[in-house]
Amino acid sequence: MNIYDFTVKDTDQNDVSMSDYKGKVLLIVNTATGCGFTPQYEGLEMLYEKHKDRGFEILDFPCNQFLGQAPGTDEEIVSFCQLNYGVAFKTFSKIEVNGKNADPLYVYLKDQISDDIQDPQANAIKKAFRDLTHNIGGNSIKWNFTKFLVDQEGKVVARFAPAFKPEDIEPYIEKLLNS
């Protein structure tokens, strides 16, 4: 199984195959419109505009699980993001990222990288952490604006904490786009 085996819903409730994104670098983000991190939409849009012509996509998954900070319908969320931040990247239907109703894509993403370490030499630590925490929810998304970076082959290569600014992810994106 890989990321391309999943299907998600767009804001019109149509199925979208993740295989539509084969060969692209992806930044997958769970977002909210009423969160202290909501201004990160500006940085996300900057990254998207700068790199979209080189095979980069941002996939936005609104989530209302964290203090109800993504209220409203899918259409209201899209409108808010476009009007307030000029968002042009793809926003999908609102999902849950934790618990028994977690979207299968997020169940998969969380299992691939279970912490926020980006050091490639830390793979053994990542595996040990994943093994220790798998059964107690240690892979859980902690808050809105957790970001997963996926390479052109569909491999999750990094997980960034909500406080990690989108602009600071750019070197990682550049490295993947240049490989």
UniProtKB/TrEMBL annotation:
<dbReference type="GO" id="GO:0004601">
    <property type="term" value="F:peroxidase activity"/>
</dbReference>
<comment type="similarity">
    <text>Belongs to the glutathione peroxidase family.</text>
</comment>
<keyword id="KW-0560">Oxidoreductase</keyword>
<feature type="active site">
    <location>
        <position position="35"/>
    </location>
</feature>
<feature type="domain" description="Thioredoxin">
    <location>
        <begin position="1"/>
        <end position="178"/>
    </location>
</feature>
<keyword id="KW-0575">Peroxidase</keyword>
<dbReference type="InterPro" id="IPR029759">
    <property type="entry name" value="GPX_AS"/>
</dbReference>
<dbReference type="GO" id="GO:0034599">
    <property type="term" value="P:cellular response to oxidative stress"/>
</dbReference>
<dbReference type="InterPro" id="IPR029760">
    <property type="entry name" value="GPX_CS"/>
</dbReference>
<dbReference type="InterPro" id="IPR013766">
    <property type="entry name" value="Thioredoxin_domain"/>
</dbReference>
<dbReference type="InterPro" id="IPR000889">
    <property type="entry name" value="Glutathione_peroxidase"/>
</dbReference>
<dbReference type="InterPro" id="IPR036249">
    <property type="entry name" value="Thioredoxin-like_sf"/>
</dbReference>
<dbReference type="Pfam" id="PF00255">
    <property type="entry name" value="GSHPx"/>
</dbReference>
<protein>
    <recommendedName>
        <fullName>Glutathione peroxidase</fullName>
    </recommendedName>
</protein>
